[in-house]
Amino acid sequence: MKFQTSQFHGYESRHNLDCWNQKEYIGLGTAAHSYTNGVRYSNVETIEEYIQNYQMDKPENNFIFHEKQTTQSAAREYMLLGLRKIKGVSIQEFKQKYAQNPIYLYRKELEKLVEEQLIEIDGDNIRLTNKGIDLANLVWEEFV
Questions:
Q1: With 0-12 CB in 10 A as exposed, 13-18 as middle and 19+ as buried, what is 97?
Q2: Which H or E run includes 72?
Q3: Is the pLDDT of residue 59 over 80?
Q4: Is residue 126 within 8 Å of 89, Cβ to Cβ?
Q5: Please, how many CA atoms are within 13 Å of residue 60, restricted to the half-sphere of its CB?
Q6: What domains lie within the chain, and their CATH numbers?
Q7: Which of the residues 3, 79, 104, 107 has the least number of beta carbons within 10 Å of its own beta carbon?
Q8: Can you name the residues that pair with 45 across neighbouring β-strands?
Q9: Residue 34, SS3 per DSSP
C-alpha cells in the first residue's frame, strides 16, 4: 500500500511538524527544552534549583547548553527530520534554506538509499518508500 499525503491531512502533529521543519521554540519551566538561532538548550530539572536561581538573580544558571548548529549540521538534520514526514523533503525548500541542492550535496547517501529501495526521488520530493518506512532508522543513520 502506498501512502498518500492527503490521507493524513489534518491528522499531523503540529508540534512534531514544527520540530521536523526546524522551527524555533522556547520552553518555559523546569526541564523545558528550547531551540533558537540554531542553539539547543534546556532548563535545569529541579524546581528548587530553578526557583533559587531566580531568587539569587542568576536566571542564566537555569540554562544548560546542548548544541550550536553549523550550517552543515543543520542541513543534515533537515534531511533526517524531513524524511520523517510522509511527503519527505522538498528539494526546492532545501535549496531555498541552504542555497545548495540536496541531490548533489548528499548524492552518495541518496544513491545508496535509492539502490536499496528505501527512498524515492519523485519530482521535487525525496521521501521514504514503503520499505523505507519499515526501515526508517537505516535511512536516518545516513544523515547523523
A1: middle
A2: helix 71-82
A3: yes
A4: yes
A5: 0
A6: 14-68 (no CATH), 71-141 (1.10.10.920)
A7: 104
A8: none
A9: strand
Note the Cα 70 to chain centre separation in Å: 14
The length of the chain in residues reads 144
At 13-49, the pLDDT tens digits run 777 777 887 889 999 999 999 999 999 999 999 999 9
C-alpha cell at 95: 535549496
CA distance 65 to 55: 21
Distance CA 14, CA 29 (A): 21
In single-letter form, the type of residue at position 11 comes to: Y
- Please name the amino acid found at residue 23: K
C-alpha cell at 24: 524555533
